[in-house]
Amino acid sequence: MSLLVKTLLTGVTLYAALVAALAFFQHSLVFPRHMVSAPPSLPAQAERLRISTPDGAELHGVRIPGSDPSRPILLGFPGNAWNAEAMALFLHQVSPTQTVVVFHYRGYAPSTGTPSAQALMSDAIAIHDTLGASVTALGFSIGSGVAAHLAAMRDLEQVVLVTPFDSLAQVAADSLPYLPVRWLFRHEMAAAKALARNGSPVTLIIADRDEVIPAKRSDALALALPQARVIHLNAGHNDIYNQPEFVPALRRALR
């Protein structure tokens, strides 16, 4: 066997092993439950919530009442490594007049079950339908896909998406351009298609230096939604929350 043939066979074997590893590990890459930090201390008025889903999962969440019950509830969907209670506390600090509700994604302790894109999107509808009031949905990172799906299925006061994307499968494909990601990816969230069916006002807050969700994916979503209000910040995916312009931009969106 010639050296060229051996080299080609080795390359094919390594490529196949890489594809197999991607297929095997994609669940833990999309839903890195081990990276979620411990919950913060919550205000004394915070309430624990629990919902049982039709397929037997138990979803645990938190509700922090606001000072003005006439304002829409803020229903938050965090990033895939962000503790739900930390997001609830953050949103309460951003808009203390509004009641905040955030649930741990299924499979993220103390919620039970196994996370998947379809499960998270279905759970969002179940959570929304227990609230019995007008709702503003806020989705951060992967949570923007969940919020977008909810907006397609339910009437919302408004939708605010931070570091959003048009398609989660396309984000994965752009990150690994030499692998057949679109054939293997099992957790699509087609945010652009979902929001095309949405009738609520949409605000997009885009990090122009986003190293996790490329700005071109956020820009593609903005292009697909010409009616959306778009706010660009000179920030990365994670340091956007430390930018002095971020919280004022979020408050403007909520007003």
TrEMBL record:
GO molecular function ontology, one term from the record? hydrolase activity
| SUPFAM superfamilies xrefs | alpha/beta-Hydrolases
**Gene3D superfamilies noted in UniProt:** alpha/beta hydrolase
User: What superkingdom heads the lineage?
Assistant: Bacteria
Recite the UniProt keywords alphabetically.
Hydrolase
Supply the name of the protein. Answer: Alpha/beta hydrolase
Q: Which organism is it from?
A: Roseinatronobacter domitianus
Q: What is the lineage of its organism?
A: Bacteria, Pseudomonadati, Pseudomonadota, Alphaproteobacteria, Rhodobacterales
